[in-house]
Specification:
Elements lengths: L13 H21 L3 H12 L1 H4 L47 E15 L2 E8 L8 E4 L3 E8 L10 E2 L6 H4 L8 E7 L4 E6 L5 H6 L3 E7 L8 E10 L1 E3 L5 E3 L1 H4 L7 E4 L5 H4 E5 L4 E10 L4 E5 L4 E6 L6 E5 L2 E3 L3 E8 L4 E7 L2 H4 L4 E6 L1
Helix pairs in contact: 1-2
The chain binds copper (II) ion.
Length: 365
């Protein structure tokens, strides 16, 4: 077992890398499932492909890039299709929350979901959905956080909260299947923040579905509005088992194009299921770009954003905006009111990306 550095040049056999990755993945799954205990599995992983191994062996790009510089990498273990896809429309509406400390639990688990009509995808998730649940707190709240990795998960995971100020090597550490980790922090800064798995290679863990939003409302709260969340993300696919697609890490690295760019985990989700909103009443959309790679220029056809806020922080206010840029790992909020009944299309105005699924219909009446 072990990696060869990815060669370059015309003589490179492009299937070699995949074959090595597939073998690596199979070996790791066997280790995790066949180990007598988690300690054994952890030791085997570190020996097989973690940082200790990486010191004297060349590694593929991004293998050790993660939120915690001391986390062991999970290499290129890939999710295994898990039976029939489990999916339902992701509720785009977010409910207000009262100020006060919040108990939040996230569970990393492997799920086969849908990311487009009839396209099943073997995902790593938080709480079984892509994106994970939309969390919400008020500035000043204490977040009492519990993280678990489901015992049946095929690999180790972590949680990186962009809404926290914390030492990543302690608070964003990687834990093994069956383990639990708790910590607390104060949500000091308002915003539309990403959370994601930070386990190396972080590109793979995000590309496989491990992200979500935490909205931290400003201390004084927001004015009432119809509030929505749109999480944009991009997917890179290759054929897996039984017609289920699996992530393609080499495409994520830039050696290929994305197959889908989506809002809330599924291409054209709100074209198939338009979102009903009210005419004449304010709308606030929080947009998080989870990436891993594709940028967004968020626009609503037929609307002008009366106000827009970088990072969804009221101090970062702009007026009369036609669209708003949102890079991967960032969030915004936009506010507008629709004055006529009709169907208004929300898009990534980088239309090549809208054409890959980043499009939604707001049905105003
Ligand atoms: Cu992960």
């Amino acid at each position: 077992m072990g990696f060869l550095r990815l060669p370059t040049g015309p003589a490179f056999d492009s299937t070699l890398f995949d074959r090595l990755l597939d073998q690596e993945s199979a070996d790791r799954r066997a280790l995790l499932k066949g180990g007598a205990g988690l300690g054994l599995a952890a030791a085997a992983l570190i020996g097989a492909g973690g940082r200790a191994f990486a010191q004297d062996q060349p590694t593929p790009p991004g293998e050790d890039v993660g939120s915690d510089p001391h986390s062991m990498g999970t290499g290129h273990s890939s999710p295994v299709p898990q039976g029939q896809p489990v999916w339902s429309v992701y509720d785009p509406f977010v409910k207000p929350v009262e100020p006060g400390d919040k108990d939040i639990t996230l569970v990393a688990k492997d799920v086969t979901t849908l990311i487009s009509k009839d396209v099943a995808y073997a995902a790593w998730t938080f709480n079984g959905t892509v994106p994970g649940p939309t969390l919400r707190a008020r500035q000043g709240d204490t977040i009492d956080f519990t993280f678990q990795v489901d015992p049946t998960a095929s690999t180790a995971h972590s949680v990186d909260f962009h809404s926290s100020k914390a030492a990543p090597n302690e608070k964003f550490k990687t834990i093994m299947p069956g383990e639990e980790f708790k910590w607390s922090y104060k949500a000091t800064t308002p915003g539309c923040f990403m959370y994601h798995c930070g386990t190396p290679p972080v590109l793979m863990h995000i590309g496989t579905g491990m992200y979500g939003t935490m909205i931290v409302d400003p201390e004084e709260g927001w004015e009432p509005a119809q509030e929505l969340i749109f999480v944009q993300s991009d997917f890179y696919l290759k054929e897996g088992e039984n017609g289920v697609m699996v992530p393609d890490y080499t495409k994520m690295l830039g050696n290929g194009n994305m197959d889908f760019v989506v809002f809330n985990g599924y291409a054209n989700q709100y074209v198939e299921n338009p979102i009903n909103v009210k005419v004449g009443e304010p709308i606030r959309i929080f947009v998080l770009n989870a990436g891993p790679n594709v940028w967004a220029t968020f626009h609503v056809v037929g609307a002008i954003f009366d106000k827009a806020y970088f990072n969804a922080n009221p101090k970062n206010v702009l007026h009369g905006m036609q669209s708003m840029p949102v890079g991967p790992g960032d969030g915004i909020a936009v506010e507008f009111t629709l004055e006529e009944p009709g169907e208004y299309v929300a898009v990534n105005h980088s239309f090549g990306h809208a054409a890959h699924g980043a499009i939604a219909i707001l049905r105003a009446s």
